[in-house]
Amino acid sequence: MSGDMLNIAVLGSGRGSNFQAILTAIQQGRITGAEIRVVISNNSGAGILEIARNNSLPAVHLSHRQFTTEDEFVDALLSLLSAHRVNFIVLAGYMKRVHPRVVEAYRRRIINIHPALLPRFGGPGMYGIRVHEAVIASGERLSGATVHFVDEEYDHGSVVLQKTVLVAPDDTPETLAARVLEIEHEIYPEAIRRLAHQDAVVEKA
Ligand code: GRF
What we know:
7-stranded mixed sheet
């Protein structure tokens, strides 16, 4: 990482609770050297855009459906990112693949959070409640959350930070998801704080 300020674009598709946790950490001064420049969603009704607007942050609905070709969509996304001087991308519940041209342009400058202990319980099709269903079905005693760099493969880039939670014998996918989400809200701001201070460490569970 360079010593520059992290000028962050947040990409998300849903309610935006991770974005809210990051924003609160910045607003409370727990993360320094980072600011949110723009929030982008493929879903015009996403809560994450609403949170951005309520905090007077640029909120942009950008979807491939607004373009004839995928290349035009990627061009528009890259232009939007440079117009906002973005040098770091945070995926927070973004349900779309990040195009390889964007990965290339922001190599090791895109992070994601996954609600399990990668490299287990990740990859195509492993998202949302399915992750927690798979963890419970496997009889695992531990789950958790992982912040990782994004590369061309789903849930594959190197780990920035992980934290574990215990799986209770009576957990349902929903109760486990709620416990993991609390951990997400701790480690996502913490990972960004460390990256902004260049003291990121790779931590394995
Ligand atoms: C989180 O569980 C995250 O791990 C996953 O999508 C969910 C996003 O939730 N990638 P939110 O929109 O941040 O509330």
